[in-house]
Design a protein that fits this description.
With 211 residues, this protein is an alpha/beta fold. Helices cover 31% and strands 22% of the residues. InterPro entries: NAD(P)-bd_dom, NAD(P)-bd_dom_sf.
Length: 211
C-alpha cells in the first residue's frame, strides 16, 4: 500500500487531513516538530516523524509515494519565518519529492499567490513566498496539485465548494475543515495532476467544483 507524507501534520488543516486519511485506512507518515501534538491520534496506519523544517528533513520521504505540504509559519511570525517555512522548506520538499520519485505533491498555497503585487504591504512577503514556492514545484517536474484557498475560517465544514473566484471579498473564504476535505479528495486524483485551483466555499460538491 502506498504511503502519504503530510508535512505540517500537527497544524490545523494538516491534522484534519491526517485523521481523515488514517480513518480511511491510508498509510500516513506525519512530519511534525513535536510528536506530542499528535498524541490524540492512535492508528496502526500512522507513523510519526519528528524533524525541523529549517533543517534537513529528506529522511521523512523514504517509501512515500504522495506528499501533502500543509506547513506554514503562522500569522504570528515575522517575514523571516515566512521565508524559511513557506518558501524555503516548501522548495526543499519539492526537491526531496523529485529525488524520491513522488507520484503526487499536493501543496496548500494561498489566494493571491498568482499575483503578489496586488496584495497589501502586510501580505506581500507571504504571497511572494507562496508564489515562488508554487513556481518551484511547478518547474520541478514533480506531478503536482496546488490548492489556493481563500481566507481561512475555523467554522465547521460547510461541505460546499467553488473554484471560481466570488465577486465579493467577503465570499472569498473557506473553512479549514473544507480545505482538509479538498486535500484528501485531491490525493490520488489523476484528473487534478499538474493543475492549480483557487478554492472557496460555495454550493458545489468537490466533484462538481473540480470538474
Amino acid at each position: 500500500m502506498s504511503k502519504t507524507l503530510i508535512i505540517g501534520a500537527s497544524g490545523q488543516i494538516g491534522k484534519m487531513a491526517t485523521k481523515q486519511l488514517v480513518t480511511k485506512g491510508h498509510k500516513v507518515v506525519a512530519l511534525v516538530r513535536d510528536k506530542a501534538k499528535l498524541s490524540d491520534i492512535t492508528s496502526d496506519h500512522l507513523e510519526i516523524v519528528e524533524a525541523d523544517l529549517e533543517q534537513d528533513f529528506s529522511h521523512a520521504f523514504k517509501g512515500c509515494s504522495n506528499v501533502i505540504f500543509a506547513a506554514g509559519s503562522g500569522g504570528s511570525t515575522g517575514a523571516d519565518k515566512t521565508m524559511l517555512i513557506d518558501l524555503w522548506a516548501a522548495c526543499k520538499a519539492a526537491d526531496y519529492a523529485k529525488t524520491n520519485t513522488v507520484s503526487q505533491f499536493v501543496m496548500i498555497s494561498s489566494i493571491g499567490a498568482d499575483d503578489p503585487a496586488q496584495g497589501s504591504d502586510e501580505m506581500k512577503p507571504y504571497l511572494v513566498a507562496k508564489h515562488m514556492a508554487d513556481e518551484h514545484l511547478i518547474n520541478s517536474g514533480v506531478p503536482y496539485t496546488i490548492l489556493r484557498p481563500g481566507g481561512l475560517q475555523n467554522e465547521e465544514a460547510k461541505g460546499g465548494f467553488q473554484t471560481t473566484k466570488p465577486d465579493s471579498r467577503e465570499q472569498m473564504v473557506i473553512t479549514r475543515e473544507d480545505v482538509a476535505d479538498a486535500l484528501v479528495f485531491a490525493l490520488g486524483n489523476k484528473q487534478l495532476i499538474n493543475a492549480v485551483y483557487e478554492l472557496f466555499n460555495g454550493d458545489q460538491t468537490l466533484e462538481q467544483a473540480f470538474d
